[in-house]
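Hi, here's the filled form for the chain we discussed.

Project: internal
Contact: R.S.
Residues: 146
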Amino acid sequence: MRELGINLGARTEMDIPTFCAHIRELGFTRVFSGSTDPDKVRRQAEEVHAAGLCYDTLHAPFKGIMNAIWQEGDEGEETLRQLMTCVDLCAEVDAPIAVVHLSAGEKAPPPTDAGRARFIRLVEHAATKNVKIAFENQRKLGNIGW
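And the returned structure, exactly as it came back:
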């Protein structure tokens, strides 16, 4: 059976319980959350599951942090920590996929050994949680294969 999903952010004036009930009535079975606020996602998860819906994906934090993952030092490690926290949240609310950016902005940094090592750690962590990583919005496609 084909399942339909919709972004929780697609609602306008409706609260989450009302929106979830309406979209379930319309035949939707899955939702996507673009929120990067863990507390908000947890609150929404209660309503999502109560309506008989499932998460399809959660979006990992990206604003102002993604380019740091390629740099040596604490800022890159903090970026990795935030991404791992998103993976943990996915496991907690039964979202099978975390959507992650490899970089941000039009001038993405070149790949580095430090960044590659962090992404390897992220993917390995996700595997232990039975969460997949979906990389999106690539500025430099070479960063994927590096």
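Let me know if anything looks off before we file it.
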